[in-house]
């Protein structure tokens, strides 16, 4: 046998030996949990304190948005709440003694006026009966007397209202208005605090989509962090799905790492999907697969996201 055919046979045996690895396996990528920090308001970015790929601690400042407009709105809402607070205090205190005294004086004057007009009407009515005064003058005197009596009754009712004090329904309305104003202030204060974007957890800055001076729309991501332990998102082929469950142990193989990394399945979906192109292995091209997440057991492992990974599951 010549050298070339002998090498061909050896290569064939090597390929067959490699294909005899019957350990259940799945391909995927190394990932982290992602936290997106959205823009709380459409304000200009005035400072960026970190760079992509930088490790950050919880509470560390990431970006600073312009504060002027939101701060002014907050102060305006505080002033509105103060006005509502004063209005409620006025309702609870009720009418002043001076107002009640003035109402009593006005009522006394109105009663005197009503009594005077009634006396005059009674006098001219007698003259009318004797045909000594025109009927139109008598009618005007009667109208004046009735009007003065009505005015006195209205002032008497107003005095009773003042003496009774503020209605409980008005106080309840004042309390509700004050609560709404204070809630608006609290919400605006939260928005003002969010303009200083800080890291909610320890993690790695994965992306800062906007640059200094940009103005992102409300809800757009200002920063994306990678947090927690790394995990492998793999596609489990349908033939081995029944043997993989939450808690199943696995070995993770990553290029550049000589030894396998132990892991534990923390999630596997029940809905199947088609195997992606990078996870195809021979006949797997037509198979259904199930997305699973294998958590790296080593809490101190420092592994970059996006690396291709191969997971072998325990029998």
Automatic annotation (TrEMBL):
| Annotated Pfam families | HH_YBHG
Q: Where in the cell is it found?
A: Cell envelope
Q: Does the keyword Heme apply?
A: no
Any idea which UniProt keywords this protein has? Answer: Coiled coil, Signal
Query: Start and end of every YbhG-like alpha-helical hairpin domain?
Result: 78-190
The reply to whether Glycoprotein figures as a keyword in the UniProt entry is no
Cellular component aspect of the GO annotation:
cell envelope
Q: Which residues form the signal peptide?
A: 1-17
Protein name per the record: HlyD family efflux transporter periplasmic adaptor subunit
Originating species: Noviluteimonas gilva
